[in-house]
Design brief:
The protein has 361 residues and is α+β, with helices and mostly antiparallel strands. It folds into three domains: 144 residues, Cyclin A, domain 1; 38 residues, no CATH class; 82 residues, SH3 type barrels. 35% of the residues lie in helices and 9% in strands. The longest helix has 15 residues. The N and C termini lie far apart (85 Å).
C-alpha cells in the first residue's frame, strides 16, 4: 500500500466554480461572441454598483442632515434637489421621498415589489432540486402566485447580514450587468422582466436565490426575443453563419445609464383622480398577469398621503399593451385595516399605488 505523502501548502487551493457560475460564464461568452454585449461595459456597470452606488451614499446624505439643519430642511422639502447637491442623481436619487423619525413615529422602508424579495433564509429549509410532482411546474400565467409574499407567515426570521456585499458571488454581478446590457437593445422593459421572474415555477421560485431567479427568467427572455437559440445555449457558441452584432451598450453608454437610469416617470398631461387626504379603497382584483397591487391591500381602505406624479403603468407595460401613464400615490393604510384588530393602532403602512388600483371610498 502506497504511503500517504505529506501535503505541503506552497500553493493556493482554487475553489471549484459552482454549476451556476459556469452557466453564467458560458452565457456571457456566447453573448460576447455574438456581439450582443461588450465585456468592458459589463465591468463598468459592476464596478459602479459595487463601489460607487449603495448605502454609503445614503449614509452621507443622512450625516449631512444631522450636522446641517438648513440642509435637513431642504432634504425634507425637496429630496431630489437636496440629494443632487451632494452629486447623486439618476438611479441614485430620483423621485426620492425623505421622512423623519420622531419620538412618536418610526419609519421602516421596504421594497414595494411583490416579486423581488424572497429571503434567502427560506431556501435552506426547502428540499433541493425541482419538484417533479408540482401541478404547476410549467411557465404559465400566474394569478396570486407565490411571488406575492407580503403579509404571509411561516417564512422564518429575517436574517441580518452585517457588512452585506452588493453581490454575494461574482456570477451575481455578471447576471446583473448582462440583464442591463441586453436591456439596452429595447426588446423588453423592466415590467416584462419582473413578470418573467414571476413565471418561474413555484417550487423553483422558493428554492432559488434572487439572482438565480433573475438568471432563469433572463434565459427565457433571450430565447423569446430571438437573441439566442436554445441550440446555441446547449453548444455554448453561435450557430454557424449567424451574423455578428454590435453591442447596444458601450462603456460610454453604460456611464450614462449609471448616471441617468431609465426613468419610468412621464411628463404628460394626465389629471390625477385623487387628491391628498382623500379616502380611497384599493380595488379587489385578481389579474392573470403582472400587477404591483399586493394581495394584502386589496379591498382595504386608506388615504392619499402624497402624489408622486405620473408614471408608466406596470400592469399593461409588462404585456406590451402600452405604457398607460397615470398618477402614482403614496397611500397610507392603518395597520389594523390591513392585519386586523391585533395590529398596533399606532402603526400604518404607505404603499405606492397607481390610479387604476384605486376607487373613491
Amino acid at each position: 500500500m502506497t504511503p500517504e505523502l505529506p501535503h505541503t501548502h506552497d500553493h493556493e487551493h482554487q475553489a471549484v466554480p459552482s454549476d451556476l457560475a459556469l452557466r453564467v460564464k458560458a452565457l456571457e461568452s456566447l453573448l460576447v461572441e455574438k456581439g450582443l454585449v461588450d465585456r468592458a461595459a459589463l465591468d463598468t456597470l459592476i464596478d459602479a454598483y459595487e463601489h460607487k452606488i449603495g448605502p454609503r451614499n445614503g449614509a452621507r446624505v443622512v450625516a449631512r442632515a444631522w450636522a446641517d439643519p438648513a440642509y435637513k430642511h431642504r432634504l425634507l422639502t425637496n429630496a431630489d434637489a437636496a440629494i443632487a447637491e451632494l452629486g447623486y442623481g439618476g438611479m441614485q436619487g430620483e423621485h426620492m421621498v425623505v421622512v423623519e423619525n420622531t419620538p412618536k413615529v418610526h419609519n421602516m422602508i421596504v421594497c414595494r415589489s411583490t416579486a423581488c424579495k424572497t429571503r434567502r433564509a427560506c431556501h435552506s429549509r426547502l428540499h433541493g432540486g425541482r419538484d417533479k410532482g408540482c401541478a404547476s411546474s410549467g411557465r404559465g400565467l400566474r394569478m396570486n402566485g407565490v411571488h406575492d409574499m407580503g403579509g404571509m407567515h411561516g417564512m422564518g426570521p429575517i436574517q441580518e447580514e452585517k457588512n452585506e456585499p452588493v453581490f454575494h458571488e461574482p456570477w451575481e454581478g455578471r447576471v446583473f450587468a448582462l440583464r442591463r446590457a441586453i436591456g439596452a437593445w429595447g426588446k423588453w422593459n423592466i415590467d416584462v422582466m419582473r413578470h418573467e421572474v414571476e413565471l418561474v415555477p413555484p417550487a423553483d421560485y422558493l428554492r432559488m436565490s434572487y439572482y438565480e431567479r433573475q438568471f432563469e427568467a433572463f434565459l427565457v427572455l433571450l430565447t423569446k426575443r430571438g437573441f439566442i437559440a436554445p441550440a446555441e445555449i446547449e453548444a455554448g457558441k453561435p450557430a454557424p453563419g449567424s451574423p455578428a452584432a454590435v453591442p447596444a451598450l458601450t462603456v460610454e453608454k453604460a456611464k450614462v445609464l449609471i448616471a441617468k437610469g431609465v426613468p419610468t416617470s412621464r411628463d404628460v398631461p394626465v389629471a390625477p383622480r385623487f387628491q391628498t387626504g382623500q379616502r380611497v379603497r384599493a380595488r379587489n382584483i385578481n389579474p392573470v398577469g403582472h400587477t404591483r397591487l399586493p394581495r394584502y391591500a386589496r379591498g382595504k381602505f386608506g388615504a392619499i398621503h402624497l402624489d408622486h406624479g405620473v408614471f408608466v403603468f406596470p400592469d399593461t407595460n409588462a404585456h406590451y399593451l402600452g405604457e398607460k401613464p397615470q398618477h402614482v400615490y403614496a397611500v397610507r393604510f392603518a395597520a389594523c385595516e390591513l392585519w386586523g384588530e391585533q395590529a398596533s393602532s399606532h402603526d400604518s403602512v404607505c404603499l405606492d399605488m397607481w390610479d387604476d388600483y384605486l376607487d373613491p371610498a
